[in-house]
Amino acid sequence: MKYFILLLPFLVAACGQGPSATSNVVVNDGQGVIYGEDTRKDVDSVGDISQVAQATAMLVQEYNLAKKDGTWKPRLSTLGRSWPLCEDEKFLDQPLLGFCSGVLIAPDKVLTAAHCVQKKDSCTDTKFVFAWTSNKALQTFKEEEVFHCKNIVKQESSLSRGTDYAIVQLDREVPGAKPVQISKRNLEKGEKVLSLSYPLGLPMKQDAGIVTEYSAEKQTFKAEVDTFAGSSGSPLFDRQGNLVGILSRGQEDFLEDDIYRVRTQGGCIRFNRCQSGSCFGGEMFFKPSTIDL
To answer: Which of 130, 247, 283, 286 is the most exposed, having the fewest neighbouring CB atoms within 10 Å of its CB?
Structure first.
């Protein structure tokens, strides 16, 4: 069995002490629509990849959270109830909640895709939670676990230039989560990368994949990782645990014609699958290193 090793970057303590020792993170290797087999895995515990998992945000529409007595109760459906998927698709019994993903790049700032928070109203109606994993997916959120969008600091979306990002300021700093470090180095074709996201609004999933297209001159690149709607804005990490991309757009999860067919004729839907090297080279990622922070 092969493994994908993430050497998490050391972080300097706030008191000014020297760097701590780096820690090794091991996740099962696999090639990232679905590329080949569906290799997404639950992040049941954030212990192995704690720094990057704790910094991975899920964006939730306010109407999916009911506030009562100082807590937020999620209004949940399951993947299997929401879509007429075939019984052998993964995670059918797991709940759905979020609509996009993001990552903490400063104590109170989240980087996500521009199309996730397009308008001022989107900011007002969007809540942020971090490290929503399957082992706590049915729990009620405490008041301090839900963060509010205070302001859209910066936003740019241009198909011609390939830009698709937004920096959101939260109402307060996120305790217990360290902002990720943005890599400025160029990636290599075939390099292993790790995706963390909330696909379709499911609890956090991890998937290891490979870079398929990369040019130093462009603001975007492609990688084969298994992502879905709801993964938009999700972070992509290199072996050192540094942020190298956020998901901008990808292939269709399933075809509208398939949904119509199932609803009118019966049957079930399967997620689209691609062989490695097909489907236009993979999912499109924006380079955070090109943002003037």
So the answer is: 130
Give me the phi and psi of 154, to 5 degrees please: -155, 145
DSSP 192-258: EEEEEE-GGGPSPEEEEEEEEE--TTSSEEEEE----TT-TT-EEE-TTS-EEEEEEE---SS-HHH
**Is 32 within 8 Å of 274 (Cβ atoms)?**
no
Indicate the domain borders of the chain: 3-10+19-290
pTM: 0.82
Position 143, amino acid? E
**CATH code of the domain made up of 3-10+19-290:** 2.40.10.120
- Token pair recorded at residue 18: 């020297």
Alpha helical stretches, state H, the chain: 50-54, 79-82, 120-124, 256-265
pLDDT digits (tens, 9 = 90+) for 178-234: 999 999 999 999 999 999 999 989 999 998 889 999 999 999 999 988 877 788 999
In angstroms, rounded to a whole number, what is the distance separating the alpha carbons of residues 217 and 223? Answer: 17
